[in-house]
UniProtKB/TrEMBL annotation:
Residue span(s) of domain DUF3502: 418-485
UniProt name for this protein: ABC transporter substrate-binding protein
Statement: the UniProt record of this protein carries the keyword Iron: no
InterPro entries documented for this protein: Bact_solute-bd_prot1, DUF3502
Signal peptide annotation: 1-23
Pfam families (UniProt xref): DUF3502 (PF12010)
Keywords for this protein: Signal
Amino acid sequence: MQKMKRRLGFSLAGVLLMSSVLAGCAGPDATQPAAGGNAAETPKGPPEKLVWYVRYSEPANAKAVLAKANELIQSKIHATLDLRFINPGDYDNKMQLIMSSGEEYDLAFTSAWANNYLNNVDRGAYIPLDEMLVQYPDLQSIMRKEVWNAVKVKDKTYSIPNNQIMVSQDGVWFKKDIADKYGVNIQNVKSIEDLGRFYATVKEKEPGIIPLRAGSVSLGFNAYVPSAENLFSIDTSTWKVYDKAQNYVDEYKTFREWYLKGYFPQDVATLKDETSLIKAGKIFSRYGRQKPGGDAELKAAYGFDVVQAPTAPPIIGRSAALSTLTAISTTSKKPQLAMKLIHLINTDKELINLLSFGIEGQDYTKAGDKRIEKKAGSYEVPGWLLGNVFNTYLLPGQPDDVWEQTKKINETAQIDPLISFNFDRTRVENEMARLTAIEKEFQPILDNGLDDTEKTLKLREEKMKAAGFDKVLAEVQLQLDEWRKNQK
């Protein structure tokens, strides 16, 4: 009988913006009114430039699209945007270098899974946004209170969650033509063993196609287990904290078998440009978040039909809330203006569609008031990287009511019991830095079966212990117990 456990995976979460600056902190633009407010006078002088880093390879036609977007931005908030694209495989390292150098920039994509939000807050990379947040009441009401609580660190909000699907539901997508060819019925995908049988068929009969992009414990069809700091799991029957790796030994062993059978790319753990491989039809399946209309989005991104299967129940948890965020850098000299831009991209339909899909006629054609058809090889940036996807056009295959469906899920999904638990790393900051580095070292090995599972887990445990794992676990347990005392 399959065990029922599951880590809180990184998800696409959605949510909208808001923010605020330190009390008494006034940049050069501090006298400018909030976006949407009544300006006492029209700003004078040339518009100020805002630099925004995003985790995406520069798309076709980017310069033309940004030029048109800047016409709109300048007319609305007297600013221009320098949207700087960084290849996803390089994003973490380059952002670390940018922050370490003290480079002046204004906004950046951050999350629980890329350009780690919590680590960056700890290092002082972002400003708290709560005071600016109150200037944008139209944004505050868009998401559930629990989601805003999840984004806070030490009772302060350091980022704006991008407003999209907030539910974290793990799943897997399959290339439809191959799935149909070999009878992969998603209704029959109920276990990791089922996946293994499908992959064996593809490996045998389609030697030019890789069965699975990469391993993930989220493919284990396990029940939900709350987690903390991506290192610890919490048993909510006893409220005891333990090493999350204990949940997934069986999955890790399965991934080792799959690796040895050649189900993954040879460079599975270091592959930087998976998109080209997927678009070329060389990948049969990949882990992916489940959401209404997701299959249509994948078709638009990759150029072929997919079918999807959920591997876990829908949950709104902290990792989901932290999965797609926009933060304002402490090096920004225009934090108020940066906040205006966040507000604008989350409330102005023309801007979010322009920066997501490009220019009508050049990059897409209209197929209705709210629906478009993309042109091959044209500009495109996922809306969830930037802001409010509920204001974006519909793509072919997406239901007319996809955003209504998504909002309903956001409003009704189960809330993680630990969504507002914010671990304070202060007393174990050095240990946490070491443990995070060790986890980053071992996770790709375990998820992709790159070495013997038992040997790898033993070595991981030894390194974790030496780095202060027990001390941090005790601190998490202490703070968790204190947090529970204050819960109603």
